[in-house]
């Protein structure tokens, strides 16, 4: 049975080397997921792939139906989810093109459907979110990176912003004071919803650019695209290796 799913972000709307078996349209009580779920084989193992921004990369971060995505995966009995996410780097040592496995989150998003626990409740529920990512899957990602010789930062705080605009330089200064090392738009509520469904979730962040005010000038889509290509090549090798150990 398939137990691992990858949610692909910007720069990874499809998974090279995934041998596609079938596509499945799943309906959920929360609406439609971003795309049909792709069932396939990677390194000879079962995998489900879901492009977060839709098959044609048309859904912006604040419009992603995070609840439908996680619910659909959970309905298929998926136990482990790796969320791939493009980020900007606030920390000076997390260069564009590098890959980071964050271990903490600060959530600055608003107005997103961020919980399954809001109606028809038999009792009020609060999930523990002290450590927002699943340590077992984080460790598996770190071991995979080391097995394929990819240098990876193993501890970082991900700041989730609303988007779709990028941040101001002063917003980034404030985020740095708060303790953020990375900034991205899709890490929340994805991680929290996975926890509510008891899915083991970890994030693999690909640094696409220096965060606002930290590079030489304005952030360009050209720069983002080029660094994402470098980083995604690393992610592909890493996922290939991960298939052997989860
Ligand atoms: N900010 C927010 N999200 C991002 C960035 C950024 O600089 N780069 C890639 N995703």
Write the layout of secondary structure elements.
Layout: E1 4-8, E2 19-24, E3 37-42, E4 45-51, H1 66-75, E5 80-89, E6 99-100, E7 104-107, H2 135-147, E8 152-153, E9 157-160, H3 169-178, E10 182-184, H4 187-196, E11 200-210, H5 221-242
Parallel strand pairs: 1-4, 1-5, 5-11, 6-8, 7-9, 9-10
Antiparallel strand pairs: 2-3, 3-4, 5-10, 6-11
This protein binds hypoxanthine (HPA).
Q: How would you describe this protein?
A:
- With 246 residues, the chain is of the alpha/beta class.
- The chain has one domain (4-242): Rossmann fold (3-Layer(aba) Sandwich), CATH 3.40.50.
- It has 5 helices and 11 strands.
- Strands 1, 2, 3, 4, 5, 6, 7, 8, 9, 10 and 11 form an 11-stranded mixed β-sheet that branches.
- Strand 3 and strand 4 (45-51) form a beta hairpin.
- Helix 2 (135-147) crosses helix 5.
- The protein is globular, with a radius of gyration of 17 Å.
- 46% of the residues are buried.
- The mean pLDDT is 94.
- It binds hypoxanthine.
- Hypoxanthine (HPA) binds at residues 86-88, 161, 166-167, 183-185, 208-209, 211.
Bound molecules: hypoxanthine
Shape: globular
- Counting DSSP H or I runs of 4 or more residues, the number of helices is 5
Question: β content, as a range?
Answer: 15-25%
CATH-derived architecture: 3-Layer(aba) Sandwich
Mean pLDDT, nearest integer? Answer: 94
| CATH homologous superfamily identity | Nucleoside phosphorylase domain
Query: Structural class, judged by helices and strands?
Result: alpha/beta
Report the sheet with the most strands, covering strand number, pairing sense and barrel closure: 11 strands, mixed
Extract low-pLDDT stretches: none
Global Rg: 17 Å
């Amino acid at each position: 049975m398939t137990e691992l799913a990858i949610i692909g972000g910007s720069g990874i709307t499809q998974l090279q080397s995934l041998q596609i078996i079938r596509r499945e349209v799943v309906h959920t009580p929360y609406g439609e997921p971003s795309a049909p779920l792709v069932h396939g084989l990677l390194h000879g193992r079962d995998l489900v792939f879901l492009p977060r921004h839709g098959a044609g990369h048309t859904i912006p971060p604040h419009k992603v139906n995070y609840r439908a995505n996680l619910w659909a995966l959970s309905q298929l009995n998926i136990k482990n989810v790796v969320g791939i996410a493009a980020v900007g780097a606030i920390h000076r040592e997390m260069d564009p093109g590098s890959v980071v496995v964050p271990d903490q989150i600060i959530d600055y998003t608003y107005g997103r459907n961020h919980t399954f626990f809001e109606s028809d409740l038999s009792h009020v529920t609060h999930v523990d979110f002290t450590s927002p990512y699943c340590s077992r899957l984080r460790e598996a990602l770190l071991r995979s990176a080391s097995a394929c010789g990819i240098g990876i930062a193993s501890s970082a705080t991900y700041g989730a912003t609303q988007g779709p605009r990028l941040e101001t330089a002063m917003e980034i200064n404030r985020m740095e004071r708060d303790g953020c090392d990375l900034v991205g738009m899709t890490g929340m509520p994805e991680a929290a919803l996975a926890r509510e469904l008891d899915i083991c979730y970890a994030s693999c962040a690909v640094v696409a650019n220096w965060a606002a005010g930290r590079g030489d000038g304005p952030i360009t889509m050209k720069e983002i695209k080029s660094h994402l290509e470098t980083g995604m090549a690393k992610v592909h090798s890493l996922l290939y290796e991960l298939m052997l150990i989860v």
